[in-house]
Design goal:
It is a single chain. By secondary structure, this protein is mainly beta. It has one domain (16-136): Ubiquitin-like (UB roll). Helices cover 11% and strands 47% of the residues. The chain has one helix at 52-66, and strands at 16-27, 37-45, 49-51, 70-82, 90-94, 99-101, 108-111, 118-122, 125-136. It has a five-stranded mixed β-sheet, with helices on one face. The chain has a two-stranded antiparallel ribbon with strand order 3-6. A two-stranded antiparallel ribbon has the order 7-8. Strand 4 (70-82) and strand 5 form a beta hairpin. It is elongated, with a radius of gyration of 19 Å. Keywords: Plasminogen activation, Signal. It holds the Pfam family Staphylokinase. InterPro entries: SAK, SAK/SK_sf.
Length: 141
């Protein structure tokens, strides 16, 4: 029998989280499937909101820079991993437009693996993964 894991109360909250964004592109027929593109979206404060429009703009910019002959046709999915380095990361899946609020979390303290001595606070990270289906742009002579 599985027991539900209960999150401990936040006693030492952090004020910020780093946002790491990974975008994947693919054609509907699967012929073109380039490697994902990673973007450090920077540090955001707890309570700040991120929207699907912000990430769509980044995806469009990266697609234009890397594959200018293609355009976004549709979004396949968005997955957000909240507090990926924490003890109990949470996953959120968004098939459509979304607004995501950077949520409270416990400070994560780095420790020396040999001595166990605390080295200080390490950055809390939220990961955003998106996949878009793309099509070749049509050119008219």
């Amino acid at each position: 029998m599985l027991r539900k894991r209960v999150e401990e109360p936040i006693t030492h909250p952090t004020e910020t989280a780093n946002i790491e964004y990974k975008v994947q592109f693919a054609t509907k027929d699967g012929e073109f499937h380039p490697l994902p593109i990673f973007v450090d979206y920077g540090e955001k404060h707890i309570g700040e909101k991120l929207t699907s429009d912000e990430f769509r703009k980044i995806a469009e910019e990266k697609l234009l820079q890397s594959y200018p002959d293609y355009m976004i046709d549709q979004k396949e999915y968005t997955i957000i991993k909240h507090n990926s380095l924490g003890q109990l990361p949470r996953y959120y899946s968004y098939p459509d437009d979304f607004s995501y609020e950077i949520q409270d979390r416990q400070r994560i303290m780095a420790k020396d693996p040999k001595s166990g001595k605390e080295l200080g606070e390490t950055q809390s990270i939220d990961n955003v993964f998106e996949k878009y289906l793309i099509t070749k742009k049509s050119y008219k002579p």
